[in-house]
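Sequence design from tokenized structure. All designs in this work follow the same two-part layout: the structure record, then the generated sequence. An example of the structure record is given first.
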């Protein structure tokens, strides 16, 4: 069936990096010349620039998105015996962080249209043990935070955004990472804003949170060799800060390219039986992933494989059914929407630099299976 030469990758970062190679090389060389590699000037510059980008007062850079979630929960006061409400349909790092602080993940089913946590169901999950709500901005679109913010204010709960897939996304003028008490970002290489390795950050408008986050990421040092509590080695390295500073200037343009690709997919797949993703009213979707749904997913995966087209599954096993969380006591059928989406989801190639001819071929293959 393959009538073209060459594979179509799910992600090809080399195309993105070619256009900014001189700036990246210069930033790396400046870091090498300074000879400082652990949370110095480039990291501080990135923190200032990313806080401005997210319209928050503070940004604290760390070594991964998982570390960002862990520290955010910790400074929000979540600990042993507490409960944190979140979605079962996300990458495991979201719930890992809840477990790291000794709390219990309490899952709420997702909205079938957006695959984000169903805000209408959240209130029913609140108990006297609830300490925080942790929505995920899945695939690049912000969760419905206005009603969740109201619930947090009503019950005295922390609102922590998992914005790992939503760099630059907006909801009614609020940018991801600035709506909640704390916003957590991953800069894993394939994210909309990706490092050359692992990196992450926490955004906040709370000065006390920011100060404690800076301490905790550096072994909880309030001054050299003084440790006021148990800390962590979660610092962002200087090379990642330098690289992210360069790439941040291109983020909005790359997001526009992602949006154009998503719109092209939508137009060309409109007459198929696939359930297509959408951009909700009042939202700015940054299209980290373009995820279609089909009850014939395995058949489509086979067709894409035979056509040499990359694809992904985000995510095939909901968290409440993961073996690691068997002890929580959830069962198949507890969150039917998340379980259905997990069986049907199929991520198509989407990255800045994806060629129109490549997109056309992906759509040709998919349309031929309908």
């Amino acid at each position: 069936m393959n009538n073209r030469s060459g594979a179509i990758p799910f992600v090809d970062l080399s195309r993105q990096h070619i256009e900014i190679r001189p700036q990246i090389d210069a930033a790396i060389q400046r870091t090498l010349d300074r000879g400082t590699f652990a949370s110095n000037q480039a990291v501080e510059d990135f923190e200032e620039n990313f806080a401005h980008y997210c319209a928050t007062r503070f940004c604290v850079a760390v070594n991964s998105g998982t570390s960002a979630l862990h520290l955010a929960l910790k400074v929000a006061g979540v600990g042993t015996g507490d409960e944190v409400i979140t979605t079962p349909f996300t990458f495991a790092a979201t719930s890992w962080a809840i477990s790291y602080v000794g709390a219990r993940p309490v899952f709420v089913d997702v909205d079938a249209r957006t695959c984000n946590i169903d805000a209408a169901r959240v209130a029913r999950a609140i108990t006297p043990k609830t300490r925080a709500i942790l929505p995920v901005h899945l695939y690049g679109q912000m969760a419905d935070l206005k009603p969740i913010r109201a619930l947090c204010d009503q019950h005295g709960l922390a609102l922590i955004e998992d914005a790992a897939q939503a760099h630059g996304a907006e909801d009614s003028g609020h940018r991801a990472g600035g709506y909640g008490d704390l916003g957590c970002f991953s800069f894993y290489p394939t994210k909309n804003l990706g490092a050359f390795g692992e990196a992450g950050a926490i955004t906040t408008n709370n000065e006390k949170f920011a100060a404690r986050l800076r301490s905790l990421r550096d072994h909880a040092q309030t001054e050299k060799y003084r440790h006021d509590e148990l800390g962590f080695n979660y610092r962002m390295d200087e090379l990642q800060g330098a690289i992210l500073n360069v790439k941040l200037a291109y983020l909005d343009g790359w997001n526009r390219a992602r949006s154009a690709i998503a719109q092209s997919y939508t137009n060309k797949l409109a007459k198929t039986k696939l359930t297509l993703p959408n951009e909700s009213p009042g939202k700015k979707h940054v299209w980290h992933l373009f995820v279609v749904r089909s009850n014939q997913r395995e058949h489509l995966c086979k067709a894409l494989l035979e056509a040499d087209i990359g694809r992904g599954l985000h995510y095939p096993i909901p968290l409440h059914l993961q073996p690691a969380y068997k002890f929580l006591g959830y069962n198949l059928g507890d969150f039917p929407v998340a379980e259905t989406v997990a069986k049907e989801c199929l991520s198509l190639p989407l990255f800045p630099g994806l060629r129109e001819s490549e997109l056309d071929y992906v759509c040709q293959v998919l349309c031929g299976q309908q």
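The chain has a mean pLDDT of 96. We note this feature because it recurs in several other targets discussed in the main text.
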